[in-house]
Write a structure and sequence with these properties.
By secondary structure, this protein is of the alpha+beta class. Among the domains are: 37-156, Topoisomerase II, domain 5; 242-320, Gyrase A, domain 2 (2-Layer Sandwich); 358-475, Topoisomerase, domain 3 (Orthogonal Bundle); 497-619, DNA gyrase/topoisomerase IV, subunit A, C-terminal (Neuraminidase, 6 Propeller), CATH 2.120.10. 33% of the residues lie in helices and 22% in strands. It has 19 helices and 36 strands. The strands form eleven sheets. It has a four-stranded mixed sheet with strand order 14-9-8-17. Strands 10-11-13-12 form a four-stranded antiparallel sheet. It has a four-stranded antiparallel sheet with strand order 20-18-19-23, with no helix packed on it. A hairpin with a 3-residue loop joins strand 29 and strand 30 (682-687). The protein is elongated.
C-alpha cells in the first residue's frame, strides 16, 4: 500500500513538473520560428496595434500600454512586461527596434529606464509589416487568459524577425540565444532559398555573412567556424571591439575605441580600464575618458612612444573588449514543439509560413471580392429595370414588404436585397450607376487574378518574394559588424611591468615580505619564535624560486608577489598550494644579474636570445650553472639551473623522497667541494664532481652514510673555506674544511662535534 502511494506521488510530481516545464518553454522563454517573438513581446505589439498606436500617431504613455497588456492578455508582473517593452525600444539591444520609445529607455552604460509613468511609446514603421494582414484571417486566434477575447497565436510577420533581431531566453532544460543579422542579407538569403530550395547553409552564407550586432565590432571567427555553428544551430561567436589611433600635436597619440562587443556595459568597461590605470598595471596607459554622443568614442591617452598594439593587447586580455556570444538556435517549430534548428531550417520555416499567410490572405480577399461581386450583381439587375424596382418599393408599406417584393421579383437573395435597400438615393443617378458597372468589371478582373495566383505555386512564391523585396527596399541598411581575419594581438605580460628592483625577505616560518627598498633585513620585526631565513633581490620581471621540505620547487614571477605595506608579510602558503607540514627551506633569486654576482662572473647581457641561455652562463667549458639539493637521508644530486622555469601554484617535483625524509636545502654550485654534517656530529668533504647530475626529478645518489642520524646541513665551497656548525643549544663552532679528511661519496665521515647536536651548517 505504501509503495502504491509512493508511486502515485512520484507519478503526480513528474506530471506536474513536465506541465511546468512545457509551460515555461512554450509560453514564456522560447520564440516562435515564424514571427521570432515570445508570447510577452507578441502581446505587447498586438495590444499596441489594438489601440491604434501606429507609427503615424502620437506617442502614448507606457503605463497605458502596460495596463492594456496586463488587463487583457498577460496577467503577470508589470515590471517584467515593461522590461520587455523597453528592450524592444533600445537600439543598442535590437538591430531593428520594434517600439518607438520617447523618454528615458535606458542606455548602453547600464542606466535603468525611467518608470513607465514617465515614458511613452508607439510602434515603429517596421512593426507594421509584422502586424499587417492580421485582420485578414491569416493566422489562428485563441482565447486570452480569462476567455473574454481572442489573441493571435502568432503574428503574420513579413519580417524575418527571429534572424534580424535575434532573441534570448532560458527555459527548463534548454535555452536560446539568437544573434541579430542584417535585414538585407537575410532577405537575399530567403530569396535565394525560394529560387533554390535545395540550397545548403554554405550557399545561404554567400548572402548571410554572419551575425550583425547593433553596436558593430569585429567578428573574429572564420567562415568555416560560422558555417559549422549555423549548420549545427550551436556555437560560439567571438566579438572584439574596434579602435583607431589618432595623432596629436608634438608627436603624441591617443587610442579611440569606436565600438564595443554586443552586450558589454560601456560604463563598466571604462571603470575597469580606470582601475587598471589607478593600480598601475598598465604603465603605458595614462588616462581614459568617455566622449561618446550618438557615436561611440572612448579616448585612451597613452605615453609618448608607447605601442598602441601592446596597450590594446593588455586591455583585450583583462577587459571585455573581446567577448564571446554563445549561439543556440532553440525555438518553437510551427507545430509548437521546441527544437534546435539550423540556419536553413529557420529560413525554410519562415518561408513556408509566409506562403501560408499569403495563401490565406488571398483566399480572404477572394471571399470579400466574391461577396462584393454578388452585391454588385444585384445592383446590376435592379439598374436594368430601375423603374420597376422603384415602383415595388413605393407600393410597399414597410421595409420588410419591400424586401420580399424585390427578392421575389428579381430573384435575388437576402444580402443583395439588403444592400439595394441601403443604397442612398443619389447613387441612382446614371453616373453612379456607371461607377458600379466599372467597379464590377475591376472586381471581376481582380478576382480572376487572385484565382490565377492561388492556382499557381510559382505565383504565390512570386508574391512572397515581392513582399520581402519591399521590406528590404524600405528598411535595408549596411552591415555594422565586420567579419574579418584579424592578426592575433600578441600579449606578453612582461611588456606591461616596469623594470625595477624588488627585495624579498622570508622567515623560518614562511612569512614572505616584498619591498621596493630594504636597508637592513635584520632590523625587521618577526613574530614570536620566528627569525630571518633568507633574502633575495631581483628585477620585477625576473623569477624567484622557493625550495620546500617536500622536495618541491615553486618558481614565480616577482611582479606577481604582493608588496608589503605593514605587518609581517604574507604566509607563503597563501600564494602556493602547499601540502600539510610543507615548509620553505631556501629562497633563491633567478635574476641572472644577481646569480652572476653570487658566482662572481660577468653579468649576462639582457638581449640574449632567451632567459634560459642567460641562466646557463659560466666561464670555462660552458657546462652551465648548476644547483645542488640534499635530503635528510644523505641522498642528493646536481641539476642544471636552466631546469628552473616558471611553475603553477602547484609547483614542480624536484626531489623524490622516501619514508619520513625531507629536503634540507639548496645551494648553487660555486665551489669544487661539498661539506656535509650529520645531526650526530659527523662531517664529510667530497668532490662536487662525485655528486650525480640529474636533468629530472629523482633521489640522486647516497653522498653520506648515516647510521642512526640525519643530515643536518651542508655547504659547497673550496678546501680553504670555513663552515659554521650551529648547535641545538644555540651555540656555534667554526671549522676549516681543509682540516677534514677528503673522502669519496657514501662514506661516514669523521667526528666534528663530540657532544653537541648539530641542527644546521652555515
Amino acid at each position: 500500500m505504501a509503495k502504491e502511494k509512493l508511486s502515485d506521488i512520484q507519478h503526480e510530481l513528474e506530471n506536474r513538473f513536465l506541465t511546468y516545464a512545457l509551460s515555461t518553454i512554450v509560453s514564456r522563454s522560447l520564440p516562435d520560428v515564424r514571427d521570432g517573438l515570445k508570447p510577452i513581446h507578441r502581446r505587447i505589439l498586438y495590444a499596441m496595434d489594438s489601440i491604434g498606436l501606429t507609427s503615424a500617431v502620437k506617442h502614448v504613455k507606457s503605463a497605458k500600454i502596460i495596463g492594456e497588456v496586463l488587463g487583457k492578455y498577460h496577467p503577470h508582473g508589470d515590471a517584467s512586461t515593461y522590461e520587455s517593452m523597453v528592450r524592444m525600444a533600445q537600439d543598442f539591444s535590437m538591430r531593428y527596434p520594434l517600439v518607438d520609445g520617447k523618454g528615458n529607455f535606458g542606455s548602453i552604460d547600464g542606466d535603468a529606464p525611467a518608470a513607465y509613468r514617465y515614458t511613452e511609446g508607439r510602434l515603429t514603421p517596421l512593426t507594421s509589416y509584422i502586424l499587417n494582414d492580421l485582420k485578414k484571417e491569416t493566422v489562428e486566434f485563441r482565447s486570452n487568459y480569462d476567455n473574454t477575447m481572442k489573441e493571435p497565436v502568432v503574428l503574420p510577420s513579413r519580417v524575418p524577425n527571429l534572424l534580424v533581431n535575434g532573441s534570448s531566453g532560458i527555459a527548463v532544460g534548454m535555452a536560446c540565444s539568437f544573434p541579430s543579422h542584417n535585414l538585407s542579407e537575410v532577405v537575399a538569403a530567403l530569396v535565394a532559398l525560394i529560387d533554390t530550395p535545395n540550397a545548403t547553409v554554405a550557399q545561404l552564407m554567400k548572402h548571410i555573412k554572419g551575425p550583425d550586432f547593433p553596436g558593430g565590432g569585429i567578428i573574429l571567427n572564420s567562415k568555416t567556424e560560422i558555417r559549422k555553428a549555423y549548420e549545427q544551430g550551436s556555437g560560439s561567436i567571438k566579438i572584439r571591439g574596434e579602435w583607431l589611433v589618432e595623432d596629436l600635436p608634438r608627436g603624441k597619440r591617443q587610442i579611440i575605441i569606436t565600438a564595443i562587443p554586443y552586450g558589454v556595459n560601456k560604463a563598466r568597461l571604462i571603470e575597469r580600464i580606470a582601475e587598471i590605470i589607478i593600480n598601475k598595471k598598465l604603465p603605458l596607459l595614462l588616462d581614459v575618458r568617455d566622449e561618446s554622443d550618438e557615436k561611440m568614442r572612448i579616448v585612451l591617452e597613452i605615453r609618448s612612444g608607447a605601442e598602441a598594439d601592446k596597450v590594446m593587447a593588455y586591455l583585450i586580455r583583462h577587459t571585455d573588449l573581446e567577448t564571446s556570444f554563445q549561439l543556440n538556435f532553440n525555438c518553437l517549430q510551427p507545430n509548437g514543439e521546441p527544437a534546435r534548428l539550423s540556419l536553413k531550417d529557420i529560413c525554410r520555416h519562415f518561408l513556408d509560413f509566409r506562403r501560408e499567410v499569403v495563401t490565406r490572405r488571398l483566399k480572404y480577399e477572394l471571399a470579400l471580392l466574391e461577396k462584393r461581386l454578388h452585391i454588385l450583381k444585384g445592383f446590376a439587375a435592379i439598374f436594368k429595370t430601375l423603374d420597376k424596382a422603384l415602383k415595388m418599393i413605393r407600393s410597399s408599406k414597410s421595409k420588410q414588404e419591400a424586401h420580399g417584393k424585390l427578392k421575389k421579383g428579381f430573384k435575388l437573395d437576402d444580402d443583395q436585397v439588403s444592400a439595394i435597400l441601403e443604397i442612398p438615393l443619389y447613387r441612382l443617378v446614371s453616373m453612379e450607376i456607371d461607377k458600379i458597372i466599372v467597379e464590377q468589371d475591376a472586381k471581376l478582373k481582380e478576382k480572376k487574378q487572385i484565382e490565377g495566383t492561388l492556382r499557381s505555386t510559382k505565383k504565390v512564391w512570386h508574391e512572397v518574394r515581392g513582399e520581402l523585396g519591399e521590406i528590404e527596399k524600405k528598411f535595408g541598411d549596411r552591415r555594422r559588424t565586420k567579419i574579418k581575419t584579424v592578426e592575433p594581438v600578441e600579449y606578453n605580460a612582461e611588456d606591461f611591468i616596469e623594470h625595477e628592483d624588488a627585495y624579498l625577505v622570508i622567515s623560518r616560518n614562511g612569512w614572505l615580505r616584498k619591498f621596493k627598498k630594504l636597508s637592513d633585513p635584520n632590523s625587521l620585526k618577526y613574530k614570536e619564535n620566528d627569525w630571518l631565513m633568507a633574502t633575495a633581490k631581483a628585477n620585477t620581471r625576473e623569477l624567484v624560486a622557493f625550495f620546500t621540505s617536500r622536495g618541491m620547487v615553486y618558481v614565480h614571477k616577482v611582479y606577481n608577489l604582493p608588496y608589503t605595506r605593514a605587518g609581517f608579510g604574507e604566509p607563503i602558503q597563501n600564494l602556493f598550494k602547499f601540502a600539510d607540514g610543507e615548509k620553505v627551506v631556501h629562497m633563491l633569486s633567478l635574476d641572472p644579474a644577481e646569480l652572476a654576482t653570487t658566482v662572481g662572473q660577468a653579468v649576462p647581457q639582457k638581449n640574449s636570445p632567451s632567459r634560459q641561455k642567460r641562466l646557463s652562463f659560466v666561464e670555462g667549458d660552458g657546462s652551465g650553472l648548476e644547483g645542488l639539493v640534499l635530503g635528510s637521508s644523505g641522498y642528493g644530486f646536481r641539476f642544471p639551473m636552466t631546469n628552473l622555469c616558471e611553475t603553477t601554484r602547484s609547483g614542480r617535483k624536484l626531489m623524490s623522497l622516501k619514508n619520513n625524509n625531507h629536503m634540507i636545502g639548496f645551494s648553487l654550485v660555486t665551489g669544487d667541494y661539498l661539506f656535509m654534517a650529520s645531526a650526530s656530529g659527523k662531517g664529510i668533504v667530497i668532490p662536487v664532481e662525485q655528486v650525480s647530475l640529474l636533468t629530472g626529478a629523482g633521489m640522486g645518489s647516497r653522498l653520506m652514510k648515516l647510521a642512526d642520524s640525519t643530515l643536518a646541513g651542508f655547504k659547497v665551497a673550496g678546501l680553504k673555506s670555513k663552515a659554521t656548525l650551529v648547535f641545538k643549544d644555540g651555540k656555534s663552532k667554526e671549522i676549516s674544511l681543509g682540516n677534514i679528511r677528503l673522502c669519496n661519496r657514501g662514506a661516514q665521515g669523521v667526528i666534528v662535534s663530540k657532544r653537541r647536536e648539530i641542527i644546521t651548517v652555515e
